[in-house]
Amino acid sequence: MPDPVKPRSKPDLVCPAGSLRALQCAVDAGADAVYLGLKDATNARNFAGLNFDDAQVRDGVAYAHARGAQVLMALNTFADARDPSPWFRAADRAAALGADALIVADSAVMAWCRDHHPSLRLHLSVQASATTHAAIEFYRQRYGIQRAVLPRVLTIEQVAQVARHTGVDIEVFGFGSLCVMVEGRCTLSSWTTGCSPNNAGVCSPASAVRWNDTTAGVEARLNDVLIDTYAPDEPRGYPTLCKGRFVVDGRRDYALEEPTSLNTLTLLPRLIDIGVKAIKIEGRQRSAAYVEQVTRVWRAAIDAAAGPGPYSVAPAWTAQLARHAEGQQQTLGAYDRPWR
User: Fold this and answer.
1) How many Cα atoms occupy the beta-carbon half-sphere of 188 within 13 Å?
2) Which helix (H) or strand (E) holds 316?
3) 277 DSSP assignment
4) pLDDT digits (tens, 9 = 90+) for 194-204
5) Residue 3 pLDDT > 50, yes or no?
6) pLDDT bucket at 337, cuts 50 / 70 / 90
7) 296-326 pLDDT tens trace
8) Domains defined for the chain, CATH in brackets
9) In angstroms, how far is CA 270 from the centroid of its own chain?
């Protein structure tokens, strides 16, 4: 008789919470951890209608902890050099409110947490754009980080290389909007809108987005810059400059990246085997229904991929995620570069 296949180590499922209701939906649907931010510039999804005040954080922490889930606080923007104290106070608030870990990008904020809250776990934010094990090890040795969230620009072989050479837990994005730039520090949108994506909470602030009906179709503009023109029945993606269609050498196409969502369901066993400790779902700006439905799919997929039996992507999972994909398209992104 062949030896039974041993179960794989199960990674944490880390899900977004832009509201208390979304947090509750994520926990009820099987999230191991939720990540959230305060209603200020200390987190990278800082815009109206999202995020938590102190009372909501307290309620969310109690709800999650009662059901065995953790709460990660995103303090993932870069502190204002003129006055970093709001970021320091936010770290103090997170500790007092019972957060299990802080997701941090700014080294000054990390130093504050190291010195004032040494027992609070630090996770290196994707905003820090650490893509090598040497960079991650620097943050571990200097500030004591215990997990690093990798940017969405690495191949799976590069992820494996990083995981193999650092003692820090590695977290990767599994599903959601795909950023192809230096995360949080792209200058395309700030050049067009005058607002930093890192502090404005979004690449394309609602105040700058324009949808214009024309004889040629529906124009998507960011202020005065034409990003794309859609046929009346054509799916419309979130209007960002990096995902627009432009004329290059006489050909109109997506010059940098298509409006599409990352979906790594097919890669789950490989990600687990190379030592990834957490799978992150993007979408704090999305609805509670999105959070619930996507979390349920990924809970089932991770349980199946980490189990002793054979793994395959269920058609129902793919169909469910397709309904939430940007531009109704899905990709493996940089994990699989066919031109290599």
Assistant:
1) 20
2) helix 315-322
3) -
4) 877 767 667 78
5) no
6) low
7) 999 999 999 998 889 999 999 999 999 887 7
8) 12-178+260-335 (3.20.20.70), 188-254 (no CATH)
9) 20
* Contact (CB, 8 A) for 331 and 262: yes
For residue 335, count CB atoms less than 10 angstroms from its CB and return exposed for 0-12, middle for 13-18, buried for 19 or more. Answer: buried
| Model confidence band, residue 7 (pLDDT cutoffs 50, 70, 90) | low
Q: Looking at residue 104, what is its pLDDT? A: 97
| Alpha-carbon gap, residue 126 to 328, rounded angstroms | 25
Q: Which pair of tokens denotes residue 120?
A: 């609070």
What DSSP letter does each residue of 41-66 carry, written as one string? TTSTT-STT-SB-HHHHHHHHHHHHH
Question: What local confidence, expressed as pLDDT, does residue 46 receive?
Answer: 84
**In this structure, what DSSP letter does residue 193 have?**
H
In the numeric block, which tokens belong to residue 305? Answer: 């991929």
Task: List the Cα angle 139/145/147 in 5-degree steps.
Answer: 110
> What is the DSSP pairing of strand 209-214 with strand 217-222?
antiparallel
The answer to whether residues 142 and 109 touch, using CB atoms and an 8 Å cutoff, is no
Q: Within its chain, how far is the Cα of 166 from the centroid?
A: 21
Distance CA 126, CA 104 (A): 9
Tens of pLDDT, residue by residue over 219-270, are 999 888 898 888 888 877 677 887 888 888 888 887 777 777 889 999 999 9
Element (H, E) at 70: strand 70-75
Q: Collect contacts of 280-283 with beta carbons under 8 A, ≥24 apart.
A: 280/14, 280/35, 280/149, 280/171, 280/172, 280/173, 280/174, 281/13, 281/14, 281/15, 281/16, 281/173, 281/174, 281/175, 281/176, 282/16, 282/173, 282/175, 282/176, 282/177, 283/16, 283/18, 283/176, 283/177
**Contact status, residue 130 vs residue 136, Cβ threshold 8 Å:** yes
